[in-house]
Amino acid sequence: MTLISLHDVDVYQGRQRVLHDVTLEIGEGEIVTVVGPNGSGKSTLLRVMIGALKPASGRVERRPGLRIGYVPQRLQIDPTLPMTVARFLGLPRRVGATTARAALERAGAQGLARRQLSDLSGGQFQRVLLARALLERPHLLLLDEATQGLDQAGAAAFYRRIAEVRRDMGCSIVMVSHDLHVVMSASDRVICLNGHVCCEGAPETVATAPEYRALFGNQTGGELALYRHTHDHRHDAAPRQEGS
Amino acid sequence: MFDDFLVRAALAGLGVALAAAPLGCFVVWRRMAYFGDATAHAALLGVALALGFSVSVFGGVLAVALLMALAVSALAGRGHALDTLLGVMAHSALGIGLVAVSFLDTVRVDLMAYLFGDILAVTVGDLATIWAGALAVLALVGWRWSALLTATLNPDLARSSGLDPQREQLVLTVSLALVVAVAIKVVGALLISAMLIVPAAAARPFARTPEAMAAMAAAAGALSVLAGLGAAYLFDTPSGPTIVSVAAALFATTTLARALAGRAD
User: Fold this and answer.
1) Beta strands in A103-165 (DSSP E)
2) What's domain A27-55+139-234's superfamily in CATH?
């Protein structure tokens, strides 16, 4: 059954069209990865899914009662705001100490409950954010660049954990990432985004698709794309500036 | 016991300190200090209008403060530079308010009383208004506490949990206008922001959770009111500014103590 679906969604930021004609759906239990160059609208897509951005046109349909767990790209904690990990996990709904401990363990953040959020390292913070998202008992888990700032081994460990979460909790997972290698091998489906959906499908299919090669280059012989994309590419289907 | 003007003053100050504490924490966390200033400065315009139209000062201040806060919230979402906007609105409101007050020659307006407060002149009726307003603010902020905290941490996180960050912002805006309206008699338009921010800032160094910070801010605010009133009585100084001075001393003390204790959190 479909958890969330987007139909012909257009999103503007100011006068700039960030997403256009985006149609996609997320099914139950899938791990879907969204890849695309900087400024291709990946984070915007996630924000549309959580309802923080309203599309200018098109429809977003969520399954009634859908619970979403969201792990934002980064969270600036104002230094004037004291916040322990335990308290953070209970926002906005209080949870018991046992439940909180279980969520921290599942996210690989055990033993951090009494620490201040501001004292955590990048990796620890990501795992705490994941623990909080898991406490929502999500049907759909959305991860925005969750491995930013982690080294490759750390990122690989993070994705193994995500796979475990899916296995144990049965939720669908949509993640946005730059770590193409690891991400693609960990996904059931890859959506290649550049203002619109360029191509999508199984990781192997997408990796050899011409649209994907056009975005990420084909120096790797079509098997896997470059680890980091270049910024100076040209792409025929780049989003047009809206003329006035 | 309400017969004693000092008792009435203390109770009025405590009411304001209690309501201002949790709200002041949000003002600090969300970096809305200037927003509080703008709302408070607009209060003076409210005083002038209330006296001009012979309606209650509390009502006039509440209405203008609310209008100001809502206007700033609405304009802030439209791409204006917020600090410029607030600077324009705060000082325009203060300027126009002062001009408007000068027209009220039929009513003798003690301007100083509204700029710096006149806590010693609090009546039993004022006391009822202050505590009703303070309790309303406490109830509102208490009810929305977790939602407000989530929205303060990150609006998208709140949204994904099914909350509406804009509605929570509105709760804060309305509470702020209410606190301004009840506090103008106690500390005056110029020092309302101080009652919001200074106790919260004094509480920060030793707080580990948001709730602890709000509780400590309430304690710091209450202590400032009582010690400030005592000092004002003893040294014959203006009461509102003395209260704020005590709060400032508390802030200096906790900040210094924290620095000396090291950052062993």
Assistant:
1) 140-144
2) P-loop containing nucleotide triphosphate hydrolases (3.40.50.300)
